[in-house]
Amino acid sequence: MPDNNMPPLNNGPIPIQSLFMAQPNLNIIYPHVCLPTPAGVHINNRIQQVLYETLKEQGYYENPMTVTQGFFEVKTNQRMILSLCLINYAFAGGAHGMTVIPSMTFNAETGREYSLADQFKEGADYVTPLSEMVKEQIEERGIQTFEPFTQIRPDQPYYLADKCMVLYFPPYEITPYAAGFQYFPINLFLVEELLNEDAPAYRMLPSF
Predict the structure, then answer these.
(1) β-pairing, 67-78 with 98-100?
(2) Strand partners, 165
(3) Which residues of 32-55 are buried (b: 16+ CB within 10 A; e: fewer)?
(4) Residue 207 Cα distances to 24, 42, 162, 203, angstroms
(5) DSSP character for 130?
(6) What single-letter DSSP state applies at residue 166?
(7) CA 58, CA 37: separation in Å to the nearest integer?
(8) CB 194 within 8 Å of CB 126
(9) CA distance 99 to 28
(10) Which of 72-86, 92-106, 189-203 has the lowest mean pLDDT?
C-alpha cells in the first residue's frame, strides 16, 4: 500500500512511490505521489485514469493476449511542479509492437494538470514560434519527415525538463516507425514573454 504520510518538501522533490500492476501478459510500474492532500489525490486519480485509457488504446482489455509492459519517467520534480511520462509498450502480433507515451504536467499545490495551451497566455500565438523552432531543429538534425514539416498541433504532447519544454512526436506522426519518437527541446527563455505566469513552465524560470 502507498504511504501517504510522507510530508512534501516546500520547493524540493515530491515523494513518489512506484506501484505495480501485474496481470496475465501485463506488467506495469506506475507512479504514486505521496501527498496527503486533495491535490495529491487528484494527481494520483489522473495518473490511473491515463494509464487505463492507454491500456484501452493499446487493446489490452479487448485482447488480453496483448503483451504489455510499462514504466514511468519523472522529467521535472521541483518547485511543486511535477512533469512525467508513462511509457507503455504493447505487442499483439505482427511485425512489431507499439509504444505509447502519454505525458502529464501538474501543479502539485493545486492538482491542476496543464495542457500545452495552458502554459501560454490566453490568446497568445504559441503554435507559430514553437513550430519554427521545431522546423529549425528538423533541418539542423537532418531528420527525414514524411512531408515537409509545417507546424505542431495545438495539443502537441510535451513535458517539462528543467528550463526546457520538450515537444515530441510518436512514430508515424512525422517520421517512419524505425525513426522512433522525435523529441524537440524548446528553451523556455525563448518563449518567456508568451508564458502564462501562473503556469508550471513560467515557474521553472529563475525569475520566479
Answers:
(1) unpaired
(2) 160, 186
(3) bbbbeeebbebbbeebeebbeebb
(4) 49, 29, 14, 8
(5) H
(6) E
(7) 32
(8) yes
(9) 13
(10) 92-106
Cell of 90: 504493447
* Reported pTM: 0.92
pLDDT (tens digit, 9 = 90+) per residue, 35-44?
999 999 999 9
CA distance 104 to 113: 7
Q: For 153-190, write each residue's pLDDT tens digit.
A: 999 999 999 899 999 999 999 999 989 999 999 999 99
Residue 76: other Cβ atoms inside 10 A? 22
117 Cβ neighbours under 8 A, 6+ residues apart: 126, 154, 155
Cβ pair 81, 107 in contact under 8 A:
yes
Residue 72 and residue 87 in contact, taking contact as beta carbons nearer than 8 Å? yes
Which grid cell is 22? Answer: 501485474
Residue 93's pLDDT band, with cuts at 50, 70 and 90, is confident
- 40 and 46 Cβ atoms separated by less than 8 Å: no
Distance CA 152, CA 132 (A): 9
C-alpha cell at 76: 521535472
Across the chain, what does the average pLDDT equal? 92
DSSP three-state, residue 62: coil
Closest CA to 48 of 77, 65, 64, 70: 70
